Write a sequence for this structure.
């Protein structure tokens, strides 16, 4: 090949690339040319599927509110259809920009929607690569428009508020969260039983109001937030809770932190039993009497016993309720049994076996302080 | 100037092999193993790595016995001129099929995850031109590239897997040895063949005196690759769960998208850059294999001309392949067999014949010596 | 030479178009002609040490004179040689020598009384240092060699002189330490210099383009040295220095990629600070090259890797901006390059005004008008600042050009294009050699000792020279050093 031919070849290659690069950019779409969706709220009413799509408003007033902040920070688009495809098409017809789903913080389903379309929507969610699979899925028993009205007044995003509440409670050891990916894994497993956070309105604020029970891929029940103490002890990561105990004419508030939690499965003579082993560290906070109270060792032991019994009661109540009332292993004890006895687990029907499981509680509580509000004790720190 | 010899050092060999094997496997393997082996995936991977390590050892021994030569040069001493020629033509066709398949997978990955609207021809034009250019630079330069890319890729992926293990659920991977899944080990090993196919690139690398320890090093490399695969599969399952891993096409990428770390939050940007670079590495390694073999077979042709012809052929074939809808299925059926022949059967046969011939030559020399006395 | 030849030669030399100056001194049976160029010689020296003693000698009636007698006992010149070839006369006079011709002798004297206008030793402009010496090379080769000799008093220091350029006859000196430098590198440098056939070379940069492996090479393969202390470090590493008369920058070979990020402060300061500095410069380099492209990729293609709050914040910032991210990035980078170029060319008095124009008018006003987003401005400014952290500007110039190409490719194909282009840069870097040394050494091919030295250098730790240079004598420190 002589030099002239090389030059011609190189020149044509460069032309080709110039044309390619200048006419290309097929996927280039700036962020401000997209509708950034923060929440997807799903409802089912009058035989219709309703999408409420909450998006960030790019034309709103500045974040510090100067310049007349009457513009909403988030906009909501409502679309209706007889199925998902139709509802989505209806939503697309109303959007002036392509939808950007990677910023979605939460998927909120009304209970009536979840009862009918929970599994289908999760499968739809899995097939859509634009969603980030770490987002939360929650259920609500309130009307979606009520929820959106409250967030609109406070200039908040429902998705962000939901995510932040669940995260904050989780950090404080008062709740637990499961990502949508985890829910997907559960519904695909041999046995499905889980709890989904339920958000709602409590005194004009968005709050966690309880947990919805999903049994065998159906939304089947509800646990109000006032009745979930035992559940927190079993599911939350960094359990930290306060107990008010009555001892020797005094009401004391004790802070309890979970140090260890193990569940051991046993299978003997075709009888499944689970040993629930927990260790707690307790710390006296304050009492309702004027004088400070100095505990002796017997008092500390007695208070520890009281606490132990209280915790045991809560656990038994929580687990018992799942066995009798809901007939659903939403605490995922099936994982513990499956890991230890995979062959036996494969042979049995866990739906039938779970209500028959015997639970043994082995609770240890160590009271770290002997003076109320004792900051000098290193163990209590 | 020549005081640096044209060769591949043992370190470069490690990274060359690593990137050639892991190119697309890191993304594909979790799904394949979750479907075929379930939670016991790590075991067939390790077992397969031992098998391939032994074969890679054999290939390196063959190369070490013929310093400065590649298969095309020393093959005729082992199997005769015509069989040698046939083997080399087979390898050219084999590498071409692999190259086309990898390019199709790359286009599929890019279209599915990152650039859905960009037409495949545009992705292929820029990619193939670059890979052809890199292949033109030769084995030594490609090996140097892999030294840099390999370190970054291994570091980033290992750290990401570590974070995934830390954030994942141990329930998803336990029990590690489920008696019910033991029967899946051997069929699952068949599925790992695609992940270990690529050791035959050793046939195009001439060994020098620097590579005396290469056989042992290569054996260790394959074991490390096996462990690396096991790490990726297990960490993906820990994040996604066994069922999700079996469902998602690019499960490793999905798992990375879930992992979040403080400050930067999202970690998939690291995989976007380093993972893509490692994908490219696998592609240009295969390209250089095709080019080296083509240069041997068509010794009179200019390297630049062969590069251009190779790139054009690959582009055309890749364009055809992207339009075949069931290419995944075809690949799944046929690749284990083709790779088993290229990576296992041919090297074992060549090695065996070479050893037998060597022993026979030694015996003959001894007999001649005895006869003299 | 006989009288007739002498007269012809003198007549030719004195011809008007040459502009040579001359001085005649008669003696008993002949004449001395002193030919020189006024502007290139020390006139006082010529008068005191050549003309005066010759006149004094020749005024005595019975004294005959020839070249030998003049050299041995009359002329006071330190460099005085006797030549016979009349064809070399023009070259000798043009190089600044004084020629003394004798009508009764075919031999002539060549005297070195050169004195050209030159600057005093300046301070560094390109490679500033906090702690190191501040003396730099000048345009005068002899001054530069004197600086070198002052720093390296090794008997094995070799300085070989060459002449390059048919018309300019520029002096080029190749300097190395004989018992350290790799012979093949030295001979290759010398071979390339002697094979140059051009009419003139004015500066080391022009010479450098002749010494490259490939003519069409965008990446630098030789280092440039401004300060004299850097030369002795370079020589002690076994490298070759090339000095060009008329240029204040010396060239060094071989030079590898990692050396472009080293400064002398790394050696003079604490080794940890040095390591920190080098790592920081690597990071700065990556930022300078890729910041704008990453901005384009994240804004236009892969916004899903951004956390939600960042994405919303970025969207709000860009909501009023009419241009796409690619166009904005390219325009902003172009403006920055304009500023950079104008600051180099503009007279000192107007320099500060350019800074004000750049910062206030372009920066502030463009954001207020909604032409560019604040984030783009921050990204481009950060990339600009990062580029100033790279010590060797010759590498930086290359990547200033590549940066634009990277933005274009990223703008077309997102991170795929970004990664492809970086891969292309990488293959060019690894496949390049600098006088036989792989450009990306010690990283590819990897050498543990050299890599450790590249990251953390201290004279007490560097017991041996770098392996990549393949020098003759690797030992630096004696064995019993702490």
């Amino acid at each position: 090949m002589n030099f002239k031919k090389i030059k011609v070849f190189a020149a044509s290659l460069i032309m080709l690339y110039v044309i390619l690069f200048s006419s290309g950019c097929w996927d280039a779409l700036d962020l401000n040319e997209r509708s950034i969706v923060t929440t997807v709220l799903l409802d089912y009413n009058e035989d219709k599927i309703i999408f409420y799509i909450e998006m960030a408003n790019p034309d709103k007033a500045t974040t510090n509110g100067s310049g007349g902040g009457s513009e909403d920070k988030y906009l909501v688009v409502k679309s209706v259809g007889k199925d998902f495809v139709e509802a989505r098409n209806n939503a697309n017809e109303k959007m002036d920009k392509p939808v950007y789903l990677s910023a979605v913080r939460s998927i909120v389903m009304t209970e009536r929607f979840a009862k009918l379309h929970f599994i289908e929507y999760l499968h739809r969610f899995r097939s859509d690569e634009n969603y980030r699979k770490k987002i939360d899925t929650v259920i609500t028993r309130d009307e979606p428009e009520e929820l959106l009205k409250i967030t609109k007044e406070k200039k908040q995003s429902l998705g962000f508020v939901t995510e932040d509440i669940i995260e904050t409670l989780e950090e404080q050891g008062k709740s637990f969260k499961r990502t949508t990916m985890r829910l997907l894994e559960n519904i695909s497993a041999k046995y499905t039983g889980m709890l989904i956070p339920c958000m709602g309105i409590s005194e004009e604020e968005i709050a966690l109001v309880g947990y919805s029970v999903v049994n065998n891929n159906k939304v089947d029940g509800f646990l109000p937030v006032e009745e979930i103490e035992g559940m927190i002890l079993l599911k939350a990561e960094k359990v930290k809770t306060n107990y008010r105990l009555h001892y020797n004419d005094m009401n004391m508030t004790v802070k309890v932190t979970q140090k260890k939690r193990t569940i051991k499965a046993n299978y003997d003579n075709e009888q499944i039993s689970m040993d629930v082993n927990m260790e707690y560290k307790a710390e006296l906070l304050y009492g309702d009497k004027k004088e400070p109270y100095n505990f002796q060792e017997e008092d500390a032991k007695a208070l520890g016993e009281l606490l132990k019994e209280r915790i045991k009661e809560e656990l038994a109540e929580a687990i018992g309720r799942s066995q009798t009332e809901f007939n659903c292993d939403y605490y995922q004890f099936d994982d513990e049994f499956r890991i230890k006895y995979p062959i036996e687990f494969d042979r049995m029907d866990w739906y039938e076996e779970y209500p028959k499981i015997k639970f043994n509680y082995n609770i240890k509580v160590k009271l770290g302080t002997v003076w109320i509000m004792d900051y000098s004790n290193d163990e209590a720190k | 100037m020549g005081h640096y010899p044209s060769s591949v050092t043992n370190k470069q060999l490690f990274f060359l092999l690593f990137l050639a094997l892991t190119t697309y496997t890191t993304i594909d393997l979790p799904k394949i193993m979750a479907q075929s082996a379930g939670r016991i995936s790590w075991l067939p991977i390790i077992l397969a790595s031992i098998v391939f390590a032994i074969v890679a050892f054999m290939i390196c021994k063959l190369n070490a016995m013929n310093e400065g030569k590649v298969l095309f040069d020393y093959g005729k001493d082992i199997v005769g001129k015509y069989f040698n020629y046939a083997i080399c033509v087979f390898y050219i066709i084999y590498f071409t099929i692999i190259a086309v398949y990898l390019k199709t997978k790359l286009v599929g990955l890019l279209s599915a995850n990152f650039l859905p609207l960009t037409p495949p021809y545009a992705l292929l034009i820029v990619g193939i031109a670059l890979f052809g250019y890199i292949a033109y630079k030769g084995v030594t330069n490609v090996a140097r590239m892999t030294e840099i890319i390999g370190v970054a890729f291994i570091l980033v992926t290992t750290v990401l897997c570590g974070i995934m293990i830390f954030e994942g659920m141990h329930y998803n991977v336990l029990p590690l040895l489920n008696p019910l899944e033991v029967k899946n080990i051997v069929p699952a090993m068949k599925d790992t063949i695609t992940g270990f196919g690529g050791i035959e690139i050793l046939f195009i690398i001439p060994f020098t005196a620097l590579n005396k320890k290469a056989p042992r090093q290569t054996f260790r490399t394959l074991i490390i690759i096996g462990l690396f695969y096991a790490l990726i599969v297990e960490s993906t399952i820990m994040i996604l769960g066994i069922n999700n891993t079996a469902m998602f096409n690019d499960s490793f990428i999905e798992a990375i998208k879930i992992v979040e770390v403080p400050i930067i939050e999202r970690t998939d940007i690291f995989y976007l850059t380093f993972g893509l670079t490692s994908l490219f590495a696998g592609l240009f390694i295969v390209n250089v294999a095709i080019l080296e073999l083509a240069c041997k077979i068509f010794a009179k042709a200019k390297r630049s001309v062969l590069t251009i012809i190779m790139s054009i052929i690959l582009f055309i074939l890749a364009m055809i392949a992207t339009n075949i809808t069931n290419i995944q299925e075809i690949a799944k059926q046929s690749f284990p067999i083709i790779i088993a022949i290229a990576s296992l059967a041919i090297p074992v046969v060549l090695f065996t014949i070479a050893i037998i011939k060597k022993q026979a030559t030694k015996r003959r020399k001894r007999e001649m010596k005895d006869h003299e006395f | 030479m006989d009288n007739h030849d002498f007269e012809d030669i003198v007549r030719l030399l004195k011809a008007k178009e040459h502009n040579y100056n001359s001085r005649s001194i008669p003696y008993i049976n002949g004449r001395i002609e002193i030919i020189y160029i006024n502007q290139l010689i020390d006139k006082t020296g010529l008068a005191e040490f050549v003309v005066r003693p010759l006149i004094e000698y020749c005024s005595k009636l019975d004294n005959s004179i020839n070249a030998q007698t003049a050299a041995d006992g009359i002329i006071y010149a330190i460099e005085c040689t006797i030549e016979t070839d009349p064809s070399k006369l023009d070259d000798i006079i043009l190089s600044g020598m004084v020629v003394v011709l004798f009508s009764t002798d075919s031999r002539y004297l060549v005297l070195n009384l050169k004195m050209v206008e030159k600057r005093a030793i300046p301070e560094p402009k390109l490679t500033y240092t906090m702690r190191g010496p501040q003396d730099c090379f000048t345009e005068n080769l002899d001054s530069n060699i004197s600086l070198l000799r002052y720093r390296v008093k090794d008997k094995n220091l070799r300085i070989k002189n060459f002449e390059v350029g048919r018309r300019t006859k520029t002096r080029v000196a190749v300097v190395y330490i004989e018992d350290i430098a790799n012979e093949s590198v030295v001979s290759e440098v010398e071979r390339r210099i002697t094979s140059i056939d051009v009419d003139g070379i004015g500066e080391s940069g022009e010479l450098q383009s002749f010494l490259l492996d490939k003519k069409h090479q965008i990446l630098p393969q030789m280092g440039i040295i401004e300060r004299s202390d850097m030369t002795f470090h370079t020589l002690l590493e076994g490298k070759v220095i090339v000095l060009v008369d008329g240029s204040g920058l010396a060239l060094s070979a071989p030079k590898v990629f990692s050396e472009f990020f080293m400064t002398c402060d790394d050696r003079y300061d604490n080794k940890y600070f040095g390591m920190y500095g080098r790592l920081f410069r690597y990071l700065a380099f990556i930022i300078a090259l890729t910041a704008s492209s990453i901005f384009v990729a994240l804004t236009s293609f892969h916004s899903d890797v951004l956390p939600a709050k960042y994405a919303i914040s970025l969207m709000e910032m860009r909501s009023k901006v009419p241009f796409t991210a690619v166009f904005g990035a390219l325009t902003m980078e172009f403006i920055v390059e304009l500023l950079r170029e104008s600051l180099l060319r503009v007279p000192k008095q107007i320099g500060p005004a350019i800074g004000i124009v750049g910062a206030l008018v372009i920066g502030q006003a463009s954001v207020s008008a909604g032409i560019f987003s604040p984030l783009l401005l921050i990204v481009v400014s950060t990339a600009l600042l990062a580029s100033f952290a790279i010590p060797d500007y010759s590498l930086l110039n290359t990547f200033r050009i590549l940066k634009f190409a990277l933005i274009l490719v990223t703008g077309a194909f997102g991170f795929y294009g970004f990664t492809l282009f970086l891969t292309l840069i990488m293959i060019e870097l690894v496949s390049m050699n600098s006088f036989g040394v792989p450009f990306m050494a010690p990283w590819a091919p990897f050498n543990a000792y050299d890599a450790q030295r590249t990251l953390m250098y201290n004279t007490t730790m560097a017991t041996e020279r770098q392996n990549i240079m393949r020098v003759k004598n690797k030992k630096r420190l004696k064995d019993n050093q702490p």
